[in-house]
Amino acid sequence: MGKAIFLVDAIAKSKGTGTAKLWEIWKTYKDVAHLVAAAVLISAEAQTRHRAAPYGLRLHQLQPFRMAMLIPELVIAVSMSFEEYGLHAVAQSCTEPMFDPETLWRIPPDINVAPLAPPPRKIRPIDIALLNARRAGNRGKGARLLQFQPEAR
Hints:
Elements: H1 2-11, H2 19-29, H3 33-52, H4 64-70, H5 72-88, H6 125-134, H7 142-145
Helix pairs in contact: 1-6, 3-4, 3-5, 4-5
């Protein structure tokens, strides 16, 4: 989560995307994060595909809440994959999985929906450069290292 929050803080220009606010949001909503992440990811994928070949809809009609209302089975299926990952994957620096099994909102296994892997997302060169600059050996050098010039590569 630290890497994701770092990237949003570094790239996003919207109000409420600072590090402290994002950690507060994570703490408040982490028990349903798999559902929110699935809806946002499906919305982003639908918007990307809509830009390539329009569906006859407006982009605001492909927002996460509407995706959850229009295709709930897809959101639940992708959420199941995130839930499984979050309950079993343990980061290198941690001793426990990302999600707390005691408080996580669980998707019932008997709802006739199979888990579905999320659509692949590409990591952009700017994201890689920012994450490399964030590494422990680079502390204190961030201002200089975060001036990524994609044309220079």
